[in-house]
Design goal:
Number of helices: 5
Strand order of the largest sheet: 2-1-5
Number of domains: 2
CATH class of the largest domain: Alpha Beta
Helix content: 25-40%
Largest sheet: 3 strands, parallel
CATH topology of the largest domain: Rossmann fold
Number of strands: 5
Amino acid sequence: MAVDEAAAAAKGKSLGAADPRLQGISDAIRVVPTSPSQDAVDMFVERYRGMGIAAVAGIEARGFIFGPAIALAIGAKFIPLRKPKKLPGEVFSESYVLEYGMDCLEMHVGAIEPGERVVVVDDLVATGGTLSAAIRLLG
């Protein structure tokens, strides 16, 4: 029932009779029907399936949207690359320069084995600093 109600909310149908709280939540959510493209994950899967990819590394935060779905579809593990002090346990860190300062990515120790092939997923590349840090971290 909750899934049907959520689908109705996404399509703009009234939920008031079911539960007025649901209508309030629905009214507060901005629906962008063309984002992300339904084909986005499929395009990555078609490209990387069968290439021996062992892991998909998603850069926080938008790499967490597509990364797990791609990893699951190609039979790979997902590795979150996070901002400092977000991951529990022992981590590796890699600092990098942004156009407006410095930042850092962290990854769990043991998340990847030497020689494993990895796809890195992020939302955009501006300076390449984050991607370079991810590659160094995974290397």
